[in-house]
Each structure stands twice: as structure tokens, then as C-alpha cells.
Design goal:
Layout lengths: L14 H22 L23 H10 L14 H6 L24 H17 L4 H4 L3
Length: 141
């Protein structure tokens, strides 16, 4: 039998504690299995791991991106996995921004609206224009 599970944790949570709790449950089940059949076992394989992303919703990266995107909505926390935490852990200011809606992503008939693509294109054009100037002129502090 195969059981795949995923743990999504928030920035600031004690990830070691979470994994320790999971490992305690696995060890309890392993003992029960081995009592019934000595050859039985539970193998755990880590398929991927992404550090949580913690970005100040009112920090320079979020404010600058919102301005470039023409978005007046407050930044929010996302509840899906992304490589963004890897970049942030490397010291690169990072946020997640893009067209579409995660509720429509990664499923049959996934789609992005033409209006969403047009808005993303406008943002990229504003970014390209900004990158031609010194960062001090366009990064919102």
C-alpha cells in the first residue's frame, strides 16, 4: 500500500516538531505491523520540500509589485506550495504574483482569462520600463 501525504505549514511554525509528531505515529504503526508480520514495514520517502514563504504584506517587495500590477488589494497569504520560499531563504526578496486563480489551476480544463493575461502583460511592460531606471526610482520603500 502507498500513502502519500503533504504537510503545509505556515511561516514561524516549528517544522521539526511537526515531523517529530508524524514520525512518532509512524513508529507506533510500524511496531503494530511488525507484531503481526515481522517482514512488514513502513518506508517514508521525502519527495519534495519547500520552505514556507514569509513576506511582509506591507514590505517593499509587496508594495512595489502591487504598484507595478496596478493592484490596490492588500497582499494575502497563499495556501499552496511554491518554490518562492527557496528564493526567500537564499536572501532574495520574494513574493508570488501572477495571472489566473489558483482555484482553477492544476486540474482538467485549467484556464487563464484573456483579461488576466492582458493585465499580466501590462505589469511586465511596467516592470521592463522600471528596470531601465535605478532601483531607487521605482522600488516602493
Amino acid at each position: 500500500a502507498v500513502l502519500e501525504f503533504e504537510i503545509r505549514y505556515m511561516p514561524g511554525e516549528d517544522v521539526t516538531r511537526i515531523f517529530d509528531e508524524v514520525n512518532i505515529l509512524i513508529e507506533e504503526e510500524r511496531r503494530t505491523l511488525k507484531e503481526a508480520a515481522a517482514e512488514a514495514d513502513i518506508l517514508v520517502e521525502d519527495l519534495s520540500a519547500y520552505p514556507a514563504l514569509d513576506c511582509a504584506p506591507d514590505g517593499p517587495a509587496a508594495r512595489t509589485t502591487a504598484r507595478l500590477a496596478g493592484d490596490r488589494q492588500p497582499a494575502t497569504t497563499i495556501s499552496f506550495g511554491t518554490e518562492a520560499g527557496i528564493y526567500a531563504a537564499a536572501g532574495i526578496p520574494t513574493i508570488v504574483c501572477g495571472p489566473g486563480d489558483i482555484a482553477r489551476a492544476h486540474k482538467a480544463d485549467e484556464w487563464i482569462g484573456i483579461d488576466e493575461l492582458a493585465a499580466a502583460s501590462r505589469m511586465m511592460n511596467r516592470l521592463a520600463d522600471a528596470l531601465q531606471r535605478p532601483a531607487s526610482e521605482w522600488i516602493t520603500r
